[in-house]
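User: My collaborator sent over this chain with a note saying "see what the structure looks like." That's all I know about it. Can you take a look?
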Amino acid sequence: MLNSDIYIMIPVGGVISESLFTNSKKDEIFDSYVEKLMQTSLYECDNKVSKALTRVNYGNAYISYYDSDNYDESVKQWILCNIVYTYCKNTNLGILQLIIGNCDKEDSQIGDIISSNHLSIKVNNNEYKLDEFLNKVSLNQYGKIRTINCNSINKKDKTMKYTLIAETANSEYNPHQISDSYFEKVGSDDFSKYNFYELYVDEKTVVYLLKDFSNRYEENIDAEILLIFICEIAIFQNAAVSRINIKIIDELLENSNISSRKSLKLQVEYGKTILFWNNNVFNYHVAQDLSNDIVNAFKTKELMDEYKKNSKHLEQIANLKSGITANIEAKILNTLAFILSMSQLFEIIKNIRNILIGKEWQIGIISSSVILAIVIIALIRNRQINQKNKTNK
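Assistant: Without extra context I'll predict from the sequence alone. Here is the result:
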């Protein structure tokens, strides 16, 4: 029986906390994997991107596995995996990779475990649910988990399409089969660019079927490494849009004090991810075309449209609040100016009084004139403020 090489790619943000992995065993094969991924990046990609990315092998861990989607009754098992972290310091985005080489479990069931939020991780005998694990290592998830399933072209069957949609092929929870008409839409396009493989991509899964596939993981790395790197760039793009969209939505839902300064800060953060959006990220046309296909399948454009809509709404609110604040500040300044002018007039009156002391009738006339002038000035200023308020409305 031919097994699979499975890469679970979790888009995250943050500098990873390494203390949890202090005692983790590290296999040399994954040090080799990291090195080959770096070499592929330098060869295939723009130098600015390659130099911005760092990759670290954090060693062995385990992920949860269940024989069926009846998760309440199915016994939890553990599959050995290896953790590699790809990080971009410029953008503070990363991809946490859980790699299962030569996996003998059902591919579609692993996808179902992820889709149903039953993925747990065990490190050094400490078990965590995925969100607990990410919190433990100081990372935040931004966007959907993507799975890259690499195996033999001989495994191309209906089960493969269940793998592609990240749903188990042998459900106990749902006894019905997905219709053939739906499956005609799924996996109908082969995105391969060379003749030694077939490639099928859906929103959450990449299925990579090699003509020459081995049950020894180390023998497959060279054939898999370019696809992994291209998927990394596609996932970084998706994560960049997911992060700013999540933050904008949080601002709209939770923050009643939205400001233009906050909106600008979010846009500046997003602007740094332009590193991954350049049309010439890849040195070779074929790699760029494949990356575009994967980005489209991941529905990054739809996510971008949602981000633009939410961003416009955030800016409108920020501008309205800014206008209200400016109006209040203008009223305060006018009031202060009025008080200052009155204090100056009183000072003038005082000086005139000192000069004309003893001439009460003259002082009375002057005082009345000054008071009348003050009233006229106050009326004029009040009218100007009201007219300005009407214009702003």
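A starting point for your reply to your collaborator: The chain has a mean pLDDT of 84.
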